[in-house]
Amino acid sequence: MRDLFDKIYKDKGPLGKWAAQAEGYFVFPKLEGPISNRMKFRGKDVITWSINDYLGLANNEEVRKVDAEAAAEYGSAYPMGARMMSGHTSLHEQLQTELAAFVKKEAAYLLNFGYQGMVSTVDALVAKDDIIVYDVDAHACIIDGVRLHMGKRFTYKHNDIESIEKNLQRATKLAEQTGGGILLISEGVFGMRGEQGRLKEIVALKEKYNFRLFVDDAHGFGTLGATGAGAGEEQGVQDQIDVYFATFAKSMASTGAFIAADQEIIDYLKYNLRSQMFAKSLQMQLVVGALKRLDMLRTMPELREKLWKNVNALQNGLKKRGFDIGTTQSCVTPVYLKGSIPEAMALVKDLRENHGIFCSIVVYPVIPKGLILLRLIPTASHTLQDVEETLDAFSSIRERLENGTYKRLSAGVQASEA
Ligand SMILES: Cc1ncc(COP(=O)(O)O)c(C=O)c1O
Prior knowledge:
By secondary structure, the chain is of the alpha/beta class. The chain contains 16 helices and 14 strands.
């Protein structure tokens, strides 16, 4: 028998093995100063393209004022306990009512964290004889929810309708034997590459197959659709989404999340969501802050207009310069380049140190080997000047990548095998 920790001493995991080269710079970086389009990284001014503050609310003066007043009034403890026991208030109810109306559903229920909320919503929606059908590129919180499922699950090829249909056929056959139902889970927007889930086509399959649709719209909420109600509204199928999820961690620039559905489904979920029944209620300062933010989402379409002006300037500018930005249909702006992990590290260092551009870098194993994904998140607080500077910087790093500069700079950098 070996010691439980032996494997940890030997293998730090696919990302952890890069810790010696990456920590503090590529991962766990410290961005300092007020959250905005320009912040400080290791004492240097950088244009920040890595924060999901889509509508620029994180440092909005009115929002900050409401947050501060709510913190002064309620502190960070109130209310104590889980919703079901002692953590329920009228303001929690009011926020739920307003969120439901905003996303055009009968009812909503607050979640103290998006991730855990997603995990336990999946868990609560299915029983052993039910079958889950979900996208192979689903967010980790969906995968973890599926992991709790005691019955069968099928993954389909990313956003591939043919594969979805094939898996619905398999699931239907199986469900006829088990006597269960089918839950299909998609994201409204896939956060890494920016494609919208093909909700319209998925919904059309309801004509042929009997399933319920659960959509994680973390990136769509507040950014897509005529009123900002998300990917379902954008694609004209919001009423066909059976359970809708969004987090406050992106457009709302806060913490917390919610699910929305028919009243009867929410009534069921509020008595069966283990992550809410056995954990502390969303803090009041976050509830009050979310009411303020939601009011701004509703009444200030100019925030979304400014966001999209920046998104379009950035994405069109990149395309015009010949960059591959994949198939994004949202604010998420991926830029794909070809290179090794050490080259990617040298390139990002150049971007940050010499061009003052801070964006996230994604490499294998999150994306295929040999690809570098630089992920840019435009927000309403960016300016066209930020976009121009960034486009110039990107042209420069592409040239240096292609002429081998980063290969030379990175010679000798290898992942520690320890
Ligand atoms: C698609 C998606 N779902 C769920 C979550 C989790 O939300 P939270 O940060 O509120 O836990 C995230 C990340 O924030 C996300 O990107």
